[in-house]
Write a structure and sequence with these properties.
There is one protein chain. The chain is α/β, with parallel strands linked by helices and about 350 residues long. Helices cover about 40% and strands about 15% of the residues. Strands 3-2-1-4-5-10-11 form a 7-stranded mixed sheet, with helices on both faces. Strands 7-8-6-9 form a 4-stranded parallel sheet, sandwiched between helices. α7 links the parallel β7 and β8. The chain is elongated and about 70 Å long. The N and C termini lie far apart (about 60 Å). The model has no long low-confidence stretch (mean pLDDT about 95).
Length: about 350
């Protein structure tokens, strides 16, 4: 009988449950008899031995359910070799739990940090398969992560709702979407929501270019502006600073986030000629139920993981490349981010449509 451990780690997203369902249904169909050990609250469950022995039927009915039935938490990779507050060595504890349960494989659903930890466990001799979860779509080596498209749909809906009120009141709206280091959500939702300005972490912005877009629209008789800004968007002035100095400047910024800073700059520039407002979809981008696209891709990812377990093809990350689900060695992805290329075809096409990226 196959014994499989499964956990969901890091930030939650809409497609964790359907991905787990895909893994378990695939295992059930390939092996018939299988024992599933669901670790509670991510790697913490593996560290402390908190798990549930689960039947395949417990993963039924969750294809369209958001969140994660196992719970999740963050165990930062950079602190992996730092003992817990109660003195437990994390990696040895995880290895001990794995071996005590005599697992055949551990399936890890998680983003960049979680997959770095999964790779470490693989290097420590455990059989591990990674599944690429993140709303940010920033895992290197895969064209798509599960959770991304659902988050884009939520952000796009938020922009749609703001669009009508911005138009009605002739306002400038600065809508801040998630994305500290990469701007995939901002790019896709901005284009889908008909934004006039999209600001990404990968393309430092010049406010003078933003002003030109606003004034161009005004000359066309369009007195409302939709700006979609990633939370990690950065000005050209800040981008020129050394990394340490730049981080300090950002930390000392007297605003809750970048959207409020940009809004203040716009208010100062246009004073009584423009009503500037801020909107933050925030954690709604992680919430709700997975959309149809994520349900399909999650099922495909899960099925591939089950096939890999049958083939004993461990130490790999399941990825989506050129519309096919395949797998790559974990070392090819671990520790790397997939950034938006400023020359990405979608960026160039968006510019053709008149969208400004502030560059």
């Amino acid at each position: 009988m196959k014994k499989i451990g499964i956990l969901t780690s890091g930030g939650d997203c809409q497609a964790l449950n359907p991905t787990m369902r895909g893994v378990v249904k695939g295992l059930e169909n390939l092996f018939g008899d299988v024992e599933i050990y669901g670790f509670l609250d991510g790697y913490k469950g593996l560290i402390y031995g908190n798990y549930k022995k689960m039947k395949p039927m417990e993963f039924s009915g969750i294809l369209g359910k958001g969140g994660t039935i196992l719970g999740t938490s963050r165990v930062p990779f950079k602190y992996l070799d730092t003992p817990t507050e109660d003195g437990i060595e994390k990696v040895p504890a995880m290895k001990k739990t794995y071996k005590e349960l005599n697992l055949d494989c551990l399936v890890v659903l998680g983003g960049n940090g979680s997959q770095k930890t999964a790779y470490r466990l693989s290097q420590e001799g455990l059989n591990v398969i990674g599944l690429p979860k993140t709303i940010d779509n920033d895992i290197y080596g895969t064209d798509m992560t599960f959770g991304f498209q659902s988050a884009v749909d939520v952000a796009t809906h938020a922009i749609d709702c703001i669009y009508t009120t911005a138009e009605s009141h002739s306002r400038i709206f600065v809508i801040e979407t998630m994305g500290h280091k990469v701007g995939w959500i901002t790019l896709y939702a901005g284009v889908a929501g008909g934004a006039d300005v999209i600001l990404l972490p990968e393309i430092p912005y010049d406010m003078k270019k933003v002003y030109k877009t606003i004034e161009k629209r005004r000359k066309m008789g369009k007195n409302f502006i939709i700006m979609v800004v990633a939370e990690g968007a950065i000005s050209k002035e800040l981008a020129k600073l050394p990394k340490k100095e730049r981080k300090q400047k950002i930390a000392e910024r007297p605003y809750p986030s970048i959207a409020y800073e940009i809004a203040d700059i716009l208010r100062e520039k246009y004073k009584d000629t423009a009503d500037v407002r801020v909107a933050l979809p925030g954690h709604t981008q992680r919430g709700g139920n997975p959309d149809a696209y994520d349900r399909v891709i999650s099922s495909r990812f899960g099925a591939k993981a089950a096939e890999m377990i049958k083939a004993k093809d461990y130490g790999k990350l399941v990825v989506f490349k050129n519309n096919e689900v395949t797998a790559i060695p974990m070392e090819e992805s671990a520790g790397k981010l997939k950034y938006v290329d400023p020359e990405d075809q979608l960026i160039l096409e968006a510019k053709t449509l008149g969208i400004s990226f502030g560059d």
